[in-house]
């Protein structure tokens, strides 16, 4: 059973604006949507379909993930806030019914644009298309429907750029050739990252609870397979967490044997103290919400007319941003995660919309003045 969460107390402490519980028994939908902040614009964040042992686990996940999305959007320079949705399900990788997606879409629609949905763990482009049948407030829909499709390859591209920045900071050379990288999670992001790394000449080992995904990468890309239980403690140059959160926790911290942690997963640290603990152990941690911003940069492009080139160009800048975070951490004498948080929160305070929140009907505030194309607020 998960630890009980005092939801409104957590919201007050962490600055969440709104948490919505959604249930529709007829279609077996149970979900929680959290809007952390709309200070910089409407909240944007993925829908996670996952099997949670207990509702409290889902609530804690959505609270933490939505806050991380605010930090991510802020450091990435977007006029977006942070939000997230989690859907409690028995099998996250089973195809969803159109009725469930419509019910979820209606709940998203009722938020009036304060939350824009996207893909996350367990989600597919088809899920986004299903949600889009009842609301315009969803991104990552099929390219045939005017969307940008699955953001994961762009996320992986950004993680790869971030890893170069970490290599530069750690070893004085951005090249990943001959480096040994462990990728934990061979899903959409992890598998795309593994391909990029093999292309670089890195030696890549992959672990996933789903053996078939690992076998596919071994067969098509030439990575090594390692047991799930060994992924975090495997001696390597870089550990790339690309599965779920809290990989670095009180139990694992002393077992980690890498020089750099840089991966696509959200909320890799179980707590802020883990940031300090990694720094104390001399492990360079590239803050997850800076590293994995490629997905959000990609889908934000969709709001004003998608351009893959523009999305890749802004995602490539993650390399420089990660370098700036490491430099700030050194200058301020803090661990990199804390430095990234400070950068994010300072921008959220300095550039907040009047009143500190985005109001429905003010789309100009979140598109940099560029006209909205696919998303029509009046739809
Ligand atoms: P996914 O569902 O495609 O892949 C997740 C993979 O992790 C699955 O293959 C699953 O079997 C595996 N997994 C789960 N628990 C594991 C464990 N204990 N050990 C090893 N493998 C395990 O999801 P994804 O879209 O690739 O997302 C991966 C991570 O990246 C998530 O934390 C997500 O929030 C984050 N992220 C994704 C994007 C994106 O564009 N998809 C963007 C930003 C952040």
Describe this structure as you would to a colleague.
- 40% of the residues lie in helices and 15% in strands.
- With 379 residues, the protein is α/β, with parallel strands linked by helices.
- It folds into 2 domains: 7-73 and 81-142, Rossmann fold; 152-342, Rossmann fold, CATH 3.40.50.
- The strands form 2 sheets. A 6-stranded parallel beta sheet has the order 8-7-6-9-10-11, sandwiched between helices. A 5-stranded mixed beta sheet has the order 1-2-4-3-5, with helices on both faces.
- The chain starts with 6 loop residues before the first helix and ends in a 29-residue tail after the last helix.
Strand content: 15-25%
Number of strands: 11
> Mean pLDDT across all residues, rounded?
93
Tell me what the CATH architecture of the largest domain is. 3-Layer(aba) Sandwich
CATH level-3 fold name of the largest domain: Rossmann fold
CATH first level of the largest domain: Alpha Beta
Q: How many discrete structural domains?
A: 2
Give a nutshell description of this structure.
It contains 13 helices and 11 strands. It is an alpha/beta fold.
Topology, element by element:
Layout: H1 7-14, E1 18-24, E2 29-37, E3 43-50, H2 55-75, E4 81-88, H3 98-109, E5 115-119, H4 125-131, H5 152-171, E6 180-184, H6 188-200, E7 203-207, H7 211-221, E8 224-225, E9 238-241, E10 260-261, H8 272-280, E11 284-285, H9 288-291, H10 294-302, H11 308-316, H12 318-332, H13 336-350
Parallel strand pairs: 3-4, 3-5, 6-7, 6-9, 7-8, 9-10, 10-11
Antiparallel strand pairs: 1-2, 2-4
Helix pairs in contact: 1-2, 2-13, 3-4, 5-6, 5-10, 5-11, 5-12, 10-11, 12-13
């Amino acid at each position: 059973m998960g630890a009980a969460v005092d939801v409104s107390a957590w919201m007050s402490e962490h600055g969440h604006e709104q948490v919505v519980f959604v249930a529709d028994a007829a279609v077996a939908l149970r979900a929680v949507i959290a809007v952390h902040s709309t200070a910089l614009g409407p909240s944007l964040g993925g829908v996670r379909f996952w099997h949670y042992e207990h509702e409290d686990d889902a609530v804690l996940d959505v609270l933490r993930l939505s806050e991380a999305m605010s930090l991510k959007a802020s450091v990435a320079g977007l006029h977006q806030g942070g939000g997230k949705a989690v859907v409690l399900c028995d099998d996250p990788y089973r195809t969803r019914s159109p009725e469930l997606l419509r019910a979820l879409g209606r709940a998203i629609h009722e938020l009036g644009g304060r939350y824009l949905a996207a893909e996350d763990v367990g989600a597919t482009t088809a899920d986004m298309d299903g949600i889009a049948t009842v609301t315009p407030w969803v991104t990552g829909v099929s390219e045939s429907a005017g969307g940008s499709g699955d953001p994961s390859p762009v996320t992986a591209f950004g993680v790869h750029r971030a890893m170069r920045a970490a290599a530069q900071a750690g070893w004085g050379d951005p090249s990943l050739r001959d480096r040994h990288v462990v990728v934990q999670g061979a899903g959409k992001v992890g598998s795309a990252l593994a391909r990029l790394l093999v292309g670089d000449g890195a030696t890549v080992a992959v672990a996933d609870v789903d053996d078939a995904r690992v076998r596919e990468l071994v067969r098509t890309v030439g990575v090594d397979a390692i047991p799930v239980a060994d992924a975090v403690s495997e001696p390597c140059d870089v550990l790339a967490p690309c599965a779920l959160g809290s990989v670095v926790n009180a139990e694992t911290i002393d077992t980690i044997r890498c020089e750099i942690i840089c991966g696509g997963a959200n909320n890799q640290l179980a707590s802020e103290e883990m940031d300090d603990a990694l720094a104390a152990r001399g492990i360079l941690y590239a803050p997850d919400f800076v590293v994995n911003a490629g997905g959000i940069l990609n889908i934000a492009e969709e709001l004003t007319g998608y351009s893959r080139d523009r999305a890749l160009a802004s995602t490539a800048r993650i390399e420089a941003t990660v370098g700036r975070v490491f430099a700030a951490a050194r200058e301020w004498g803090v661990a990199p995660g804390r430095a990234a948080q400070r950068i994010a929160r300072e921008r959220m305070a300095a550039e907040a919309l009047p009143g500190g929140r985005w109001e429905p009907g003010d789309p100009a505030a979140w598109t940099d003045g560029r006209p909205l194309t696919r998303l029509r607020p009046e739809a």
